[in-house]
Specification:
alpha+beta, Creatine Amidinohydrolase, Chain A, domain 1, 2 domains, five-stranded mixed β-sheet, 17 helices, binds glycine, binds manganese (II) ion
Length: 486
C-alpha cells in the first residue's frame, strides 16, 4: 500500500495545510499547495436519475414518521473500523440506514426532523466532495484523492430523493437541538456521544425494534434483489462443483475462495462467512475456518450466500458427495433431511404460524431417528421432550433479507410467535448432525452432517422456492454434479 510521506523532523515555515488522519504531517511547500488547488475539471454529474428503490425508501421513511410523530429520529450508517494505522476493515453500512435510504456510504446519517405535530422532513447527512482549496482533497486520509470520488450533496439529493447536508455539522446541530429524539445505537459512537443527554436506551431500542419489524414483509424491489442474490449464489455453487478436484488438492479454502470470487464479481460480498465444511466439519454448525482437507468419499456441506450490490443476501446450503455419489448411509441421512425439508416447505403459507415449518420438519427427523433405532420412541414423547435435538441442533429457518438472520429484533409477536404473510422470505433448513465423538450412535454415522437450505417466499396462495434452480433430491444432486464435472 502507498503511505503518505512523513513530515520532515523540523518542518519550517507554515503549518502543513491539514493534518492527516493518522497524524503524519507531509512536508508541503507553499508552491505545491497553491499548485494543487487548481487545474481540476468540473466533474459534477448533472444527468443522474434516482436510485431504483427511491419510491420504496420514501415509503419506508413515511411509515417510520407515522410511528414516531413529533420526534427527531437519527439513523446512522456507521463508521470505518480501523484494522491498523491507516488501514480499515471493509465497510458495510447499517441495515437500518440502507433500508431507509438506499445509500451505503460510511459516516452518513439519516435524520427525520419533525415538522410540527405530524410528519417529518428527511435529510441525509453525508461527507461532501473534498475541498481543494484547503488541501483536504489530497492531504487528508479521507480525501477523495486517496479514497475515490464521492457524490456531491446535490448529486446525492437526486439519487436518494431527499435533501443532503454536510455530516460534519450534524453532531453540533444535534447537541444544540431540543425536543424528543431517538437514535439507532451501535453504529456511530460520535453521533451517540452528541446525543448522550437526550436519549434513553429503552426509547432507542423501540426505534430499532420498529425498523426490524418494518422489514418483515418484503416489497417487490426487495424480492427482486433476493432473487438476484439467490441466482448468483446458485452460480457460485456451480463454480465450486467444477473445482472440487482443486479443493481436494488444497483445502476447504479453495471452495471459500471460489465462491467469494462469484460474490465479489456479481455482488457486493458474501452475506456471511461461507461455511465450507468437508467431512466431519459438517457437524460444526458455523464452521468458517475452512482450513480442512477435502476428501473423496466424504460429504461437503456448503452454506453460502452472495450479497447483492444493494446488500440483500441469499442463504443456501447443499450437502454434496465430494466424489459425485452418495454412499448408502449418506443417502439415507440425506433423504431424511430432504423429506424433512419438503414437510417444512409445505408448511410455509400465509396464515400458518412461523413455528409450523419447524415443527413439521422436526417431526420427520424424529420419526427417522426412531426408525433407525438412534432415538427411543414413541415419537410424540421424543418431540415433547425435544430429544431429537441432540442431532437436529438448530431452528429450521429464519427471515432473510438485508441481513442473513433478518429482522432479528422484531417483536416476538410479529416474528417468532407470529403468522406468515405474503412477502415474507425465509429459509427452510433442517439438518442432521452426528458428531465425530458421539458414542451414542453407531460408528458409521459419526462425522456425518447434512443440511439442505432453501430461500422461500411466502406468496398469496402458498410459497415459491427462490432457490429451486439448485437441485435438492439426492439423485438430482448427483446428476447435476456429473453434468458440471463433464
Ligand atoms: N448460514 C447461517 C444460517 O444458515 O443460518
Ligand atoms: Mn445458511
Ligand atoms: Mn440460514
Amino acid at each position: 500500500m502507498t503511505e503518505q510521506q512523513p513530515a520532515p523532523e523540523n518542518p519550517e515555515g507554515d503549518e502543513p495545510i491539514k493534518q492527516r488522519k493518522n497524524g503524519l504531517y507531509p512536508g508541503v511547500s507553499d508552491e505545491l499547495a497553491e499548485n494543487m488547488k487548481s487545474g481540476w475539471a468540473d466533474t459534477e454529474l448533472r444527468d443522474l436519475q434516482p436510485i431504483a428503490q427511491a419510491q420504496e425508501t420514501a415509503r419506508r421513511r413515511a411509515e417510520l414518521s407515522a410511528r414516531f410523530p413529533g420526534e427527531r429520529l437519527v439513523i446512522p450508517a456507521g463508521n470505518l473500523k480501523t484494522r491498523s494505522n491507516d488501514t480499515e476493515y471493509s465497510f458495510r453500512a447499517s441495515t437500518e440506514y440502507v433500508y431507509l435510504t438506499g445509500d451505503q456510504t460510511q459516516d452518513s446519517v439519516l435524520v427525520l426532523e419533525p415538522t410540527g405535530a405530524e410528519g417529518h422532513k428527511a435529510t441525509l447527512y453525508l461527507l461532501p466532495r473534498s475541498n481543494r482549496e484547503n488541501g483536504e482533497f489530497w492531504l487528508d486520509g479521507m480525501g477523495e484523492l486517496w479514497v475515490g470520488r464521492r457524490h456531491s450533496l446535490t448529486e446525492a439529493a437526486t439519487l436518494y430523493g431527499a435533501p443532503c447536508e454536510d455530516v460534519r455539522e450534524l453532531a453540533d446541530a444535534l447537541r444544540a437541538a431540543t425536543g424528543p429524539v431517538r437514535c439507532v445505537r451501535g453504529h456511530d459512537a460520535g453521533i451517540e456521544t452528541a446525543l448522550t443527554d437526550k436519549v434513553t436506551a429503552e426509547r432507542d431500542e423501540e426505534l430499532r425494534v420498529f425498523i426490524s419489524g418494518q422489514r418483515l414483509v418484503k416489497d417487490a424491489f426487495e424480492i427482486g434483489e433476493l432473487q438476484k442474490a439467490v441466482d448468483s449464489t446458485a452460480r457460485g455453487f456451480e463454480d465450486v462443483v467444477k473445482v472440487l478436484d482443486k479443493a481436494e488438492a488444497t483445502s476447504e479454502r479453495y471452495i471459500e475462495g471460489t465462491f467469494f470470487l462469484r460474490a465479489r464479481v456479481e455482488g457486493n460480498d458474501v452475506g456471511y462467512g461461507s461455511i465450507c465444511a468437508a467431512g466431519p466439519h459438517a457437524t460444526t454448525l458455523h464452521w468458517v475456518r475452512n482450513d480442512g482437507q477435502v476428501r473423496s468419499g466424504d460429504l461437503l456441506l456448503l452454506d453460502a450466500g452472495v450479497e447483492t450490490t444493494t446488500l440483500y443476501t441469499a442463504d443456501i446450503t447443499r450437502t454434496l458427495p465430494i466424489n459425485g455419489t452418495y454412499s448408502e448411509l449418506q443417502r439415507k441421512i440425506y433423504d431424511a433431511v430432504y423429506d424433512a425439508q419438503e414437510a417444512g416447505i409445505a408448511a410455509v403459507k400465509p396464515g400458518a404460524k412461523f413455528r409450523d415449518f419447524h415443527d413439521a420438519a422436526q417431526r420427520v427427523l424424529a420419526e427417522r431417528l426412531v426408525e433407525w433405532g438412534l432415538l427411543e420412541g414413541p415419537v410424540e414423547r421424543a418431540l415433547e421432550l425435544g430429544l431429537q435435538r441432540r442431532w437436529t441442533l438448530h431452528g429450521t429457518g429464519h427471515m432473510l433479507g438485508l441481513d442473513v438472520h433478518d429482522c432479528a429484533v422484531a417483536r416476538t409477536e410479529t416474528y417468532v410467535d407470529g403468522v406468515l404473510e405474503p412477502g415474507m422470505v425465509l429459509t427452510v433448513e433442517p439438518g442432521l448432525y452426528f458428531q465425530a465423538d458421539d458414542v451414542t450412535v453407531p460408528e458409521e454415522y459419526r462425522g456425518i452432517g447434512v443440511r439442505i437450505e432453501d430461500d422461500i417466499l411466502v406468496t398469496e396462495d402458498g410459497n415459491r422456492n427462490l432457490s429451486a434452480a439448485l437441485p435438492r433430491t439426492s439423485t438430482d444432486v448427483e446428476a447435476w454434479m456429473a453434468n458440471l464435472k463433464r
